[in-house]
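Dear colleagues,

As part of the handover before I leave the project, I'm documenting each prediction I ran so the next person doesn't have to rerun anything. This entry is a single chain, and its sequence is reproduced below.
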Amino acid sequence: MKKKTFPVVNMLLDKIVGGGQALGTMDDGRKLFAWGGLPGETVDIQITKKKSKLAEGVVTEVITPSSERIQPRDQDSYLSTSPWQIMTFEAEQHYKSALIEEAFELHDIVLPGAIEVYSDNKQYEYRNKIEFSWWWNKESEQLDLAFFQRGTHGKIPVDGTSLANPVINRAAAALRDLLRVKPDVRAFMLKTLLVRCNQAGKVAMQLYVKEPDFIEFSDSELKSLDIDGFELIFSNPKSPASVITKRLQSWGTVNLSDTILDIPFNYAVEGFFQINIPVYEQALNDMKQYIPAKKPTVDLYSGVGTIGLTIGGKDVTLVEINEPAVIEMKRNISNLEREKAVKAILAPSEKALEYIKGDSIIIVDPPRAGLHEDVINKLLATTPERIVYLSCNPTTQARDAKMLSEKYRISYHRGYNFFPRTPHIEHLIVLDLKTS
């Protein structure tokens, strides 16, 4: 069956929307969400997807550029990793503030005071974790690192990304070069490469392969990569995700450690840990002002415990659904010798409602979907005096705040640019119980 080809359309773009695209209106009235464009620009757009009421596409040519437009650092691959490389950083900060405001206004919530998005002004080289795909270059007949092209199922070869700590790009390129000289290694045998570093520059990586009998690397080969740890992992090829089916080889230090607000944490390369630690520490310092040390603290959706273990006080309950994260959490609790003060609970937050009590301070840092309805109902029923809510999605955070507004008011808020040059936004609200 021949693949359907969509047309290129010319249009004026109106605004930036929450997903990060620029929005325009087609001649037939459909809304078109486009990557690679900015408000006020006249552009040509290759449509990649059409539905009854909307379409999606990618800008192929800018006819009339915005004054906010700049040249992206990653000219060929920025759309894959960081589509906001095309705008000035001042514009990025402005749009992120505006999107927070828009999300709350949609639910008739006016945030108290001006909307600020904190940044340490480090726009590149901040990421401590990158996942690469693989590409076989038919012209050069060699293996390349790759990212998926936004809006398509295709890939684009890369040498790295300007968002990553340089040690990550160097390590990834070194493994690529090693695989290039190994006989009979092709891209179809490989799934992904996960590379992670800590703040001290130590690097550990995991190579996910599709064959359980993939040949192991020699000690001298791995030493030549100038990394601290390596794992070769068979990942079931039937799953599109890089899941660990079987660890085939382990070499060096495969787990990393870092400090957050001077508290040491261990974490697995594949596990959840903060991508931009300096900006995260600022968020923690802001949250700490609203968490009395003498009050019991319940930290829901707690990951490896980086919030509760740094600012949670002397009586902390950590609730997390991900078992590997809880294993790391318990290890961190033990290393800190805080077993008597901190409880680690392996459970989804909506199944651990008994820990939400009226005499506790509640911390929530949910996934993009926001709080489970059962959690919201439990909060409204038990009425803890304060809820500290850090979110990676202001849209669902605003929805939850509206439901909680029956009994709570927002007393503090601040945005954080954890992921510069991307549309992703973190936002903190502090909800205090309304007084009669």
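The chain has nine helices and 22 strands. The first helix runs from residue 78 to 81.

All the best with the project,
I.
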